[in-house]
Design goal:
Layout lengths: L2 E11 L5 E11 L3 E5 L6 H9 L6 E6 L2 E2 L10 E4 L11 H11 L4 H14 L15 H13 L5 E5 L7 H18 L2 E6 L2 H7 L2 E6 L2 E6 L1 H6 L4 H6 L6 E8 L2 E3 L4 E3 L4 H21 L5 H12 L11 H20 L2 E7 L4 E18 L2 E6 L4 E5 L8 E6 L5 E4 L8
Length: about 425
């Protein structure tokens, strides 16, 4: 596929020295529907605004159609932007709102009418063209905002959480309309959302972000089935993935009421920790070479703390962090230690022998039921399989679990 938009080591640092986006690298093909997804404040909207030219790029290179676009004015990037707030002119009709951008570009009246009428047919707005925004529902206003973008005939659609102001039923309807629209017009679309369900159901490529860093890039099923770390694993899925703290020793996982013998795990376990130990030793060796600032941000990303100002950074603070991390990794390699066992609720089954848990409450979902247990574990069962017991015993599908390191949050298997 043709590389249409490329973000090469893009970073954004604001005047208070806070990094909003860090070393962002992604390639987007022509016609892709890409979702930037993550919690509020993770840098996804800032990234979108840098692509649009509404935010300057601190470092790195943005390519659009193979040309450097860092300093290209927004009007010359051939983009259409759909904002979260709709941004409709209250004194203009639906027709004039949709036509406004075309008029400013001095498109002739006949062409404007043709484009607006075609977009209104696609979005079922034909009967609303004479109304003002105050006479529209939230869903109708959102369709007008989409229509205003469609008439531009832009090569790139940028959407910043366009459905967040709508109720649940309307969001589902608008999701399908946007996907149909994307297929019909064929524009490259970059869609920002904090809703993992929107990302999975709409996009063909997902970029997962947290604290300004990319956590994982992949297609929806790859993100869901092969999460790289604890953040991605727990961010995607409804109900969310269960994370159970287990004690690892001699290729055995101790769940407290149940022990599970792992096969051929020690080689992968040891290789994982040896690689991490080598990396941290390399970082400590490089700290004397002016790289303290870079590694400071890395350490705070891992810890999940708010980033502090550059002027507060001291080399000794960074060294202490990584020395502590090195000690934890070396201990994990050589002795028994705690790991995180990940399993999705649908991959747990009731069993006569296994892990015991107390049912706190049961959540019926029609043909299925979610059991919430005292150790923050959830089971998703067919409702006929559950018999209203307070203490249950369950096991897991042996081909569907994951094991994560607690120090780095990264997946081991």
């Amino acid at each position: 596929m043709e590389k249409y938009i490329v973000l090469d080591n893009i970073s954004k640092v604001y005047k208070n020295s806070v990094k909003a986006v860090n070393d962002f690298n992604v390639e987007i093909s022509k016609g892709d529907f890409v979702a930037l997804v993550g919690p509020s404040g993770c840098g996804k909207s800032t990234t979108l605004r840098m692509i649009a030219g509404l935010e300057s790029i601190t470092s790195g290179t943005l390519f659009i159609e193979g040309k450097v676009a860092n300093y290209l004015p927004s009007k010359d990037r051939d983009i259409a932007f759909v904002f979260q707030s709709y941004a409709l002119y209250p004194h203009l009709s639906v027709f004039d709102n949709m036509a406004f951008g075309l008029k400013t570009r001095r498109i002739n009246k006949a062409e404007i009418k043709q484009r607006v009428f075609k977009a209104s047919d696609i979005l079922n707005l034909g009967s609303l063209l004479d109304r003002r925004p105050k006479e529209l529902s939230g869903g109708q206003m959102q369709r007008v905002a989409l229509g205003r973008a469609i008439v531009r005939h832009a090569s790139i659609f940028l959407m910043d959480e366009p459905l967040s102001n709508l109720d649940a039923k309307l969001r589902i309807k608008m999701r399908s309309e946007i996907v149909k629209l994307h297929k019909e017009i064929g524009s490259t679309t970059i869609y920002v959302t904090h809703d993992q369900l929107e990302a999975i159901t709409m996009a063909n490529k997902i970029v997962v972000m947290n604290l300004g860093y990319i956590q994982q890039i992949g297609n929806p099923m790859d993100i869901y089935n092969n999460p790289h770390n604890l953040f991605v694993a727990t961010f995607f899925g409804t109900p969310t993935m269960n994370i159970i703290k287990v004690l690892y020793e001699n290729e055995s996982l101790d769940f407290g009421s149940y022990k599970y013998q792992l096969k051929d795990f020690k080689v992968k376990h040891d290789a994982f920790y040896q690689e991490k130990i080598s990396k941290v030793k390399g970082i400590l060796a490089n700290l004397e070479n002016g790289l303290a600032e870079y590694y400071f941000y890395e350490s705070h990303n891992i810890e999940g703390e708010n980033k502090k100002k550059i002027e507060t950074i001291e080399l000794e603070q960074v060294k202490v962090y990584f020395e502590k991390k090195l000690n934890l990794l070396e201990e994990a390699l050589l002795s028994k230690h705690q790991l995180s066992f990940g399993i999705r609720p649908e991959h747990l089954v009731l069993s006569k022998e296994g892990i015991k848990g107390e049912v706190i409450f049961a959540e019926p979902l029609g043909s299925q039921i979610i059991l919430h247990l005292n150790n923050d574990v959830q089971l998703l069962l067919n409702i006929d399989d559950y018999r209203n017991e307070e203490i249950i015993t369950y096991l897991f599908n042996e081909s569907k679990f994951y094991i994560f390191d607690n120090i780095t949050g990264e997946r081991i298997i």
